[in-house]
Amino acid sequence: MHAMVRRSVFAAFIAVLSLAVWAEGGAAGAKGVKAVSVRLPGPAFAALETINPERIRWHVRFLSHDLLEGRGTGQRGGDLAAEYIATQFAEYGLKPVGDGGTYMQKVPLVGITTLPETRFILQLMPGADITLQPLDEYVAYDQTQQPQSDVDAEIVYVGYGIEAPEYNWDDYKGVDVRGKVLLMLVNEPPSDDPKFFKGKALTYYGRWTYKYEEAARKGAVGVILIHKTDMASYPWEVVRNSNSGEKSYLKLEGSALKVASWIQFDVGKRLVAASGRDLDKLMADARSKDFRPVNLGTKLKAHMVSKVRHFESNNVVAMLTGADPKLKNEAVMYTAHYDHFGIRPDMPGDNIFNGADDNATGCGILLELAHAYGSASQKPRRSIIFASVTAEEQGLLGSEYLGKHPPIPAGKIALDLNYDDVKPLGAPEEVEVSGAERTSFYPVVVATAKEFRLAIRPDARPEAGHYYRSDHFSLARVGIPSFSVNEGMKFKGHTEAWGLAQDREYVEKHYHQPSDEYHPDMDFVADAAMARFGFALGWEAASLPKPVAWQPGDEFEAARVKSEDVRH
Ligand SMILES: [Zn+2]
User: Fold this and answer.
1) Distance in Å, CA 476 to ligand 1 centroid
2) CA of 55 to the centre of ligand 1 (A)
3) How far is the CA of 564 from the centre of ligand 1 (A)?
4) What single string gives the DSSP state of each residue in 301-363?
5) Tens digits of per-residue pLDDT, 488-508?
6) Residues 139-178, buried b or exposed e (16+ Cβ, 10 A)?
7) How far is the CA of 125 from the centre of ligand 1 (A)?
8) Quick one: average pLDDT of 360-384?
9) Of 311, 347, 475, 539, which is least surrounded by CB within 10 A?
10) For residue range 117-157, what is the model confidence (pLDDT) as tens digits?
11) Strands 455-456 vs 430-432: parallel, antiparallel or unpaired
């Protein structure tokens, strides 16, 4: 039955070889997108048709086997997975584009644990120090990757801590914050206007990672984020849990904060009150374009003591050289992370985090795409890069390293398509491509989805900022137009409610747990469908006269322009 379904989709697709025109309003979430035609040459269709759900199954079965020990970053199981992926790439005849003519790109990593000797003291006025309690009142990491750092610096309140020229917004107003500790709010100025910080949707400026990075770029020595549940969209327990124990970072390449910290809202109130001000008032002031930084006349005195552990892991990278003598210097990239959480020796019972869905499925798709491209009798015009990245679960670190050290300059990478956690649930009737609408490629995505009879399912909660939590984002931030491809909630023979129930059950019972395991009854038709759809998109992107661009005014447009300047 599934085979029949697929055949009819292909019949429809082949029929559009000559010309297919997408009619305005024909697909969900696509209003106002201009119609384009979709064309794939015969050899591309033939390669696309080789994509086989059963081969994806065998990759997933192996990669999530107990023998792979949960593919932990820096652990033996993770390295075995990388070797397996590299071996497949070699078998498909792909060129190694890692370090020194190998498929492996070494990713240097550092694990930091803040030790109990650390002291975090707010000097509210001379002689009036309060020592904060770790985890209950504050959390802090030293990002300089040194075993000890000391900070004794004035605290300056900088509102949201955002400098966003495209929204004509600058909380810093040119004030010199070198050597200071910056107190700031999470999230971004509230807005319903889609042209101002994308309305309700979260932009990267609202994420705490941006705030740390911007402060470090400006030479600040520390950041204190004020936690407020409704603004962060998660309670203090989440901050506490994700900021205790070891945290992993890429080995330092630029500037960094000695103190990257959060404080409880009530502590923030006390701190601000000591300077004769009111936190609620300061928070309201931050909503204005005219906001200026406020020196609170208080100080942070911190003594940071950390355990610093160096380790390494590998991204696995391969390339298929394109057919066009000029365009082969550019590429379309596919990514999927192979790492998961490894083994937790201290855990009773099943302690292997197999990560079958997350993300052996994405690896299976990536490998099947590599196989299909490798077997194509005619190659696409641009080259194709396949990258299986590490340390995603540690905070998108493998992809961040890949973005900073791409096998060809980022300005020459036309598009990245990422796969993460594509559940084997049968024939999908929807596709999720959140972020695609931010690029000039969207009309092609819409037309292709229509040919595959996939409805585009919009992001249900753009305010949650999911776009910034998957590997494609690491590539977007160096300017490469990027998005993930995944199925939606509607599958053939099932209601949407069934799909939503599957999703809920996964999140509650299996997500990031040892029970995310392979089962023989998994239906990889889902993964094959997403692979075929992504194959068509990739081939089309590899054939466009110009590389994909961000929509004008997008937050990543500046990074793209900068990366393209480098190539001329
Ligand atoms: Zn995960």
Assistant:
1) 19
2) 23
3) 32
4) EEEEEEEEEEEEEEEEEEEE--SSTTGGGSEEEEEEE--B-EE-TTSSS--EE--IIIIIHHH
5) 999 999 999 999 999 999 988
6) bbbbbbbeeebebebebbbbbbbbbbebbebebbeeeebe
7) 45
8) 98
9) 347
10) 999 999 988 888 999 999 999 999 999 999 999 999 999 99
11) parallel
Distance 527 CA to ligand 1 centre (A): 17
Confidence of residue 8 (pLDDT cuts 50, 70, 90): very low
In the structure, ligand 1 is a single-atom ion and the residues with CB under 5 Å from it are 358
Q: For residues 454 and 27, is the Cβ–Cβ distance under 8 A?
A: no
Q: How confident is the model at residue 351 (pLDDT cuts 50, 70, 90)?
A: very high
Q: Rounded to whole angstroms, what are the CA distances from 434 to 161, 234, 492? A: 26, 22, 22
Q: Which two tokens stand for residue 113?
A: 């644990």
Chain position carrying tokens 């305005």 = 24
Could you tell me the CA-to-CA distances from 447 to 22, 41, 79, 515 in Å, in that order?
6, 16, 39, 38
Whats the size of the chain, residue-wise? 568
Question: Rounded to the nearest whole angstrom, what is the distance from the C-alpha of residue 491 to the centroid of ligand 1?
Answer: 23
User: In angstroms, what is the span from residue 248 Cα to ligand 1's centroid?
Assistant: 15
Is it the case that residue 91 has pLDDT exceeding 70? yes
Residues with Cβ within 8 Å of residue 91, at least 6 apart in sequence: none
From the number of C-beta atoms within 10 Å of its C-beta (0-12, 13-18, 19+), residue 41 rates as middle
